[in-house]
Amino acid sequence: MDIREIIDRIYRMPESSAVRLAACMSSLSRPRGYCVLEAGRVEPNLFFIGRGIARACISADGKKVTFWIGAEGSALISLKSYVDDEPGYETVELMEDSLLYVLKRSDLERFLAEDIHIANWARRFAESEFLRTEQKLIPMLFLPAARRYETLLRERPELLRRVPLETLASYLGITPVSLSRIRARVKSK
């Protein structure tokens, strides 16, 4: 996915503003296992996935707990770093060899002051990220594990092919053994 597709998926704006925003972003190729964001480090820039998949996790009791998985078009950002200029709590690791687009905070802040269309794009981006967080959090609190898996199967089936089962189990808030049982039940239906 190229950067213009990503920009337009967030919010369509006049061509001149979209070209200006896209032109200030650089692309990076990084290998599987590369940590784009690291817990305890300030990373003020935004990254968008052009190709690949990533997970955000925290370390707890010596194990990594995955709380977010993103693929092409997704944004990688530490809100704590971006908003407060403080070290983030999450690590974002690439699960595949990936192409990333980087938007420097300084460039975005300059554009926010100069271009209302880019400011509206950034507002829509923030709203979308809040909505995604809410859509992930509420099911984790109220839906049983089997329903969370069925939702994942229906809404993001590509993750089953691209992400290790241990990572998916962590993302769903269950153990790998529980995920195996749920998968067996769903297949037998």
UniProtKB/TrEMBL annotation:
Q: What is this protein called?
A: Cyclic nucleotide-binding protein
What SUPFAM superfamilies does this protein's entry cite?
A: cAMP-binding domain-like
Q: Which residues form the Cyclic nucleotide-binding domain?
A: 9-112
Q: Which domain of life is it from?
A: Bacteria
> Which InterPro entries does the UniProt entry name for this protein?
cNMP-bd_dom, cNMP-bd_dom_sf, RmlC-like_jellyroll
Q: Where is the signal peptide?
A: none
